[in-house]
Amino acid sequence: MPTAFQNLPDLRGKVTLVTGASRGVGRGVALGLGEAGATVYVTGRTLSGRHPGMPFLAGSLEETAADVTALGGLGVPLQCDHRDDAQTRAVLERIAQERGHLDLLVNNVWGGYEGLHLWDERGQTWNAPFWEQPLSLWDEMFGAGVRAHYITTALAAPLLIAAGGLTVNISFFAGQRHRDTENIPYFLAKNADDRMVQAFANHFRPQGVSAVSLYPGLVRTEGVLLAPEGTFDLSSSESPQFLGRAVAHLAADPGVLERSGQTLVAAELAQEYGFTDIDGKQPPSARASFQE
C-alpha cells in the first residue's frame, strides 16, 4: 500500500490522535501520519464493518488502523462517539496509560454532513434559506464539531503539554465569510472553530504547545465521490491523504510554535514544505475563490 512520496517527514516515536478517522479526511490524515512513521490512535463510531446509519459509505477504524500500520506507522483503533464526554475521556486516559504524552492532536470529527453528497433531503436544502433547513443541523455542527473539538483538546491538554505538542483543527474556508445562501450553521461553526484555535494558542503558548487551523481544498472523500456526476469539479481536488501530509510536516516542523493561532492552507503548505499529493501533483490553493 505505500505510495511514492518525496520529502517524507520523520515522525517515528511520535504519538498522535486523529478524531473522526473511520473514513474521509480523518482517515486521510491518519494515513499521512502513518507513512511518516507515527503511532496513530484513531477514533470514530465505526469500529468495523459499515456504520448502520450510513451503510452507503465504506470505512472503519480497524481498516484505517491496518492501513496506517501497512504504511509504516502503528495504527490503534479506539471506538468513540465524541458527543459523549465519558467516551472521549476514556480515549485520553488510555493514551496516558500507554504512552504518557501526546505529540499531536488532530480535531477532525464533525457532524451534520450525513447524506449531504447523496443529494437527499439534506443535500437539496444545504444552501436553502435557513428556515427551510433541518433545525437539527445547528446541534450536529456545534455538538459533534465545535464542542467535540473543545472537549477533546481540554482533556488532551496535560498530555500535549508533557510533549510540547501540536493541536490541529480541521476547518474550511467557509468559516472566513458568508456568501449568498451558504449554510449558516456551517459558516458559524467553522468560524467558531478557527476563533477557538486562536484562543487555544493564547493559553498554550506559555506551555510550548501550538494550535492551528488547517484548511483543505475540495477533498475526494468517499461521500464526495458518491455525489451525482457533475456535482463537483474534481480537476483540482485533493486526496484525503494530502491533508495528512500537510499535518505530518507541521508536526515535524521545529518552528511550528511560531505559527500558533494561525489559519493555514494545505495546498500552500505543500508549496512551502515541498510535498505532493499521492498522484505526484501539487493542487492549487482555493484561497482566491473564497476571498471577497
Tell me about this structure.
- This protein has 292 residues and is an alpha/beta fold.
- The chain has one domain: Rossmann fold, CATH 3.40.50.
- Helix content is 39%, strand content 12%.
- It contains 9 helices and 7 strands; from the N terminus they run βαβαβαβααβαβααβα.
- Strands 3-2-1-4-5-6-7 form a 7-stranded parallel β-sheet, sandwiched between helices.
- The radius of gyration is 18 Å and the shape is globular.
- The protein starts with 14 loop residues before the first strand and ends in a 19-residue tail after the last helix.
- The N terminus is likely disordered.
Short account of what is shown:
With 292 residues, the chain is of the alpha/beta class. The chain has helices at 24-34, 61-70, 85-98, 121-124, 136-163, 184-204, 222-226, 240-252, 266-273, and strands at 15-18, 39-44, 74-79, 104-107, 166-170, 210-215, 263-265.
- Count of distinct structural domains: 1
Identify the CATH class.
Alpha Beta
Distance between the termini: 41 Å
The helix/strand class is alpha/beta
| Number of helical elements | 9
Q: Tell me how many strands there are.
A: 7
Integer average pLDDT = 88
Percentage of residues assigned to helices: 25-40%
User: How would you spell out the order of helices and strands?
Assistant: EHEHEHEHHEHEHHEH
Principal-axis shape: globular
CATH architecture, please?
Answer: 3-Layer(aba) Sandwich
The strand order across the widest sheet is: 3-2-1-4-5-6-7
Give the name of the CATH superfamily: NAD(P)-binding Rossmann-like Domain
Strand content: 5-15%
InterPro entries: NAD(P)-bd_dom_sf, SDR_fam
Pfam families: adh_short
Organism: Deinococcus budaensis
Protein name: NAD(P)-dependent dehydrogenase (Short-subunit alcohol dehydrogenase family)
